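Researcher: Quick sanity check before group meeting.
Model: Go ahead. Protein one:
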Amino acid sequence: MPSRPPKFRLDAWLATIALVAICLISLGNVIVRYATDASFAFTEEFSVFLLVVLTFAGAAVAARHNQHIRIELIEHYLPPWARKVVFVLQWLGGVTVLGIMTWYGSTFALQEYQWESLSPGLGLPNWIYVMWLPLLSVAIIIRMTQNLVDRLRGKEDPEVIHES
């Protein structure tokens, strides 16, 4: 088996860091709760935020490696020219949805910044939490576009295992 150099992908590292942080925060909260009958106030707010970051960063990784859920049966039985049309239609659908999320997420983050609204639990500025929605939506669009280019060129990621 040939060895490949490790790849540094910001989205994969971000997802990993978010998952580790969620685990550490939750474990610390459980230990403190059992030892003192009290819990940390910040754990829920940070855990929800980190879960959103984990979800979007993980979606970017999956988009790059062509591992999102879809119906491949249609792709397998189409001629190459029609398969490319399906690839582009899949990409257009994803970019449309994520483009709308980017637009409204940016608008929401800007409003949260302008209104200086604070989070209910810790009183931190809400825009710090909300700004990740449009940023990571753009990251998914970039990864989807990279994947589309590879698929149109006929490249398959060797890490992808298709079980269909």
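Researcher: Fine. The other one?
Model: Protein two, sequence then structure:
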Amino acid sequence: MIGNRTALAAAALLAAGIAVAGWAAGREVAQVRLADRFVTVKGSAEREVKANLALWPLRYVATGDDLSAVQAKTAADEKAVLAFLERHGLGADAVVSRSIDLVDLLAQAYRQGPADQRYILTRTLMIRSPDVDRVDRASQTLAELLDQGVTLGGEPGMGSGPNYLFTRLNDVKTEMIAEATAKAREAAAQFATDSGATLGGIRRANQGLFQILARDEAPGIMESRQIDKIVRVVSTLDWELVD
């Protein structure tokens, strides 16, 4: 009898131990699940900004069979272009580089058919100015150069217009991140309320990439050709949910 009682007592203690261990393990699982309760939300911020730098590759082209005559023509064209820029308030200090490209069609190994003009000489003046409005006004009056016999050229499909850049992203970055975070918190708080929970702290945050977009989106119009732009950031945040 004593042996049976001892065995029963040991079995009871073992069962109790297993029960306690199971309760403890279950409690840990519950805590882990509670810790994993979170909601992922996105918050965005936008700012309308104005470009603060203009880069204008102004290209002009001369063609002919006499290389000396072609060179003389481009030299005369350059004087006309520089005078044009000066009239529009873009002096010599705005011209940051010059380049020249000469194509001899008769020297091309895979040329097919006759060449109407043997030489194609292209010169490029790179204009750089923070006065984007002045550059824009000048670019609208290129007909003045055409009237003087200057043949303007450009990259295929690109034309010869200015590119407008916004380089002051750091001036708006901090404020925009704060706004995006605030909007994300507002969305997370609403979710917590709807689910009967309380919003905790930030579990994880991804700032996201800043995008500079054209203010007026239209087919064939690139962001770099517009002075007015939109800066956008979308942040992704995980917020803890607490019972």
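Researcher: One line on it for the slide.
Model: Residues 53-165 form a domain with the Alpha-Beta Plaits fold (CATH 3.30.70).
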